[in-house]
Amino acid sequence: MQLKLEGRRAVVCGASRGIGRAIAGVLADMGASLTLVARDESALAAVAARLPGGAAQHGIRAVDFLDTAAVSRAFADIAGEGPVHVLVNNTGGPAAGPVFEARPEEFADAFRQHVLAAQLAAQALVPGMRKSKYGRIINIISTSVKEPIPGLGVSNTIRAAMASWAKTLSRELAPAGITVNNVLPGFTSTERLDYLFRQRAEKSGGDIEEIERAALAQVPTGRFARPEEIAWAVGFLASPQAAYINGINVPVDGGRMASL
Length: 260
Ligand code: NAD
Fold this sequence. Notes:
The longest helix is centred in the middle third of the chain and has 29 residues, at 104-132. This protein folds into 2 domains: 9-186 and 225-250, Rossmann fold (3-Layer(aba) Sandwich); 188-224, no CATH class. Helix 1 (18-29) links the parallel strand 1 (9-13) and strand 2. It has a 7-stranded parallel β-sheet with strand order 3-2-1-4-5-6-7, with helices on both faces. The protein has 260 residues and is of the alpha/beta class. 48% of the residues lie in helices and 14% in strands. It has 9 helices and 7 strands; from the N terminus they run βαβααβαβαβαβαααβ.
């Protein structure tokens, strides 16, 4: 089976590092032309330059997803450059902490950064997908959609909202040949995971290596994921071969979750 996206255009959000950067690499390897989106223009330019095809084939757009008006402008501009066939919604995870202690603004910011940004991106790009009769919207969320993770109060709440948004949208857009799916990473070696371990160590006064070992012990596969392992699942969902997979959550967690 050959998974190809030649002649297709993809937008990858949160592409300056971690899982988003790995997704950019996989989609570019499949032949897509990309627009990379995140806050840091120079980091995005460095990622684009290292992709197959380089800066000549891939564009960048710096925007902060907390700035809803700027997000609207950015996706209108991207849509104006021609049809986009694959949209990967991905951005930084909310700060860790108990849900009871979370301030209202933390929920509002996380909703803006995750759900509103994804909604505006979809509204801007779906007309081009409809015209092309090819559309894939893939959301990077978290296993907390299925099993809320202690100490990630705002994140758990917002991921559930994203998953419900995606499921609803998947049924609305399916007749147009557009699929909407969620990829749920397990523990994946990125700066986000480092941050979460540091936070846990600071809160508990515990040793960071011990915290890492305890996390590893939860993963039957016995290791953390490489960002590419999340990206390969995204590559498959973006491909023509995945046309009949719609409205689902795909955990990529090494078997960590106990539930089905
Ligand atoms: P990361 O923090 O390494 O990268 C996040 C990306 O989003 C970066 O490109 C960053 O610049 C961008 N971003 C952050 N805030 C932004 C904003 N306000 N506007 C625009 N772009 C912004 O995270 P990651 O580990 O690659 O994870 C990606 C997503 O998957 C996150 O939502 C994360 O919480 C989730 N996730 C990660 C893990 C893990 O173990 N790494 C596990 C489950 C879920």
